[in-house]
């Protein structure tokens, strides 16, 4: 079996780290990268990231035409650009190329579009694609069902410059059916990349579940996990949460 060919949309801070993770994994070959503007046009992502071989030729969004995905075939497309990127790869969906999107937020029109792609190919959409945070959310939902009367608080900690409330924390509150204003607590201090904690308070005991981001490389590892799962799956919408939940179900210890 040959290497899995990957195309990436987005080459900002996170996109570069994600590209680097694919370049470091022997199962994959980075075919190309699409970014806004003409910066580093037709250079290679591998060279820009310090490697001494050519991989991941850089294209501009202006290069995307009806033949782009035919002339430069890939086995999966990974999107770390922004919400507008979704308008550029309709032809990829029509060609049956699996799509992994880690965009933080889509408007309803964009969600409708990605759902239409899911009728043509397998599409995995997870705003936070890290493996750990999705394990955290699934585990929290299980614990909430086991102890439905527990008090629950969410604490999200991020670097000092992050002004908005964590979208991941909002997602956790949503899946646990908690009011954000009442149960979501934010901390901003230097030295923290990102940390989410869910505290379950019960008589005479507490249970704390937490996930801490050490590096953006976690997004790349999540994307690699998603690609491995998605290739060969039938058309449809997938999420990291549903995949992890199914793995929980399959791996429950039997006593």
Automatic annotation (TrEMBL):
What EC number(s) is this enzyme filed under? 1.17.1.8
Keyword Disulfide bond in annotation: no
By its UniProt entry, which Pfam families does this protein fall under?
DapB_C, DapB_N
Task: Output the Gene Ontology terms for molecular function.
Answer: 4-hydroxy-tetrahydrodipicolinate reductase
Q: Which terms in the GO cellular component ontology are assigned? A: cytosol
Task: List the InterPro entries hit by this protein, alphabetically.
Answer: DapB_C, DapB_N, DHDPR_bac, NAD(P)-bd_dom_sf
One of the GO BP terms on file: diaminopimelate biosynthetic process
Q: Which intervals hold domain Dihydrodipicolinate reductase N-terminal?
A: 4-128
UniProt entry tagged with the keyword NAD? yes
Residue ranges constituting the Dihydrodipicolinate reductase C-terminal domain according to the UniProt record = 132-243
Leading EC class:
oxidoreductase
The biological pathway it contributes to is:
Amino-acid biosynthesis; L-lysine biosynthesis via DAP pathway; (S)-tetrahydrodipicolinate from L-aspartate: step 4/4
Which SUPFAM superfamilies does the entry mention? Answer: Glyceraldehyde-3-phosphate dehydrogenase-like, C-terminal domain, NAD(P)-binding Rossmann-fold domains
Which reaction is recorded as catalysed by this protein? (S)-2,3,4,5-tetrahydrodipicolinate + NADP(+) + H2O = (2S,4S)-4-hydroxy-2,3,4,5-tetrahydrodipicolinate + NADPH + H(+); (S)-2,3,4,5-tetrahydrodipicolinate + NAD(+) + H2O = (2S,4S)-4-hydroxy-2,3,4,5-tetrahydrodipicolinate + NADH + H(+)
Task: Provide the family line.
Answer: Belongs to the DapB family.
**Name of the featured protein:** 4-hydroxy-tetrahydrodipicolinate reductase
């Amino acid at each position: 079996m040959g290497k899995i060919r990957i195309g990436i949309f987005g080459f900002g801070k996170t996109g570069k780290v994600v590209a680097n993770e694919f370049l470091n994994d022997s199962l994959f070959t980075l075919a190309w990268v699409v970014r806004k503007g003409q910066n580093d046009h037709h250079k290679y992502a591998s060279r820009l990231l310090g490697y001494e071989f050519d991989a991941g030729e850089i294209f501009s969004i202006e290069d995307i035409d009806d033949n782009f995905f035919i002339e430069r075939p890939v086995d999966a497309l990974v999107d770390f650009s922004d919400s507008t990127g979704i308008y550029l790869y309709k032809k990829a969906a029509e060609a049956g190329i699996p799509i992994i999107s880690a965009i933080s937020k889509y408007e309803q029109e964009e969600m409708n579009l990605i759902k239409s792609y899911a009728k043509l190919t397998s599409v995995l959409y997870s705003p936070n694609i890290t493996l750990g945070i999705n394990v955290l959310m699934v585990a929290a939902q299980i614990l909430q069902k086991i102890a439905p009367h527990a008090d629950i608080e969410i604490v999200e900690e991020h670097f000092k410059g992050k002004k908005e409330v964590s979208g991941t924390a909002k997602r956790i509150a949503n899946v646990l059916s908690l009011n954000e204003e009442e149960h979501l607590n934010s901390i901003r201090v230097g030295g923290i990349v990102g940390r989410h904690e869910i505290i379950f308070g019960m008589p005479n005991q507490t249970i704390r579940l937490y996930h801490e981001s050490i590096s953006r490389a976690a997004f790349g590892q999540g994307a690699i996990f998603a690609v491995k799962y998605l290739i060969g799956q039938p058309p449809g919408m997938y999420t990291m949460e549903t995949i992890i939940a199914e793995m929980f179900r399959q791996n429950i210890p039997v006593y």
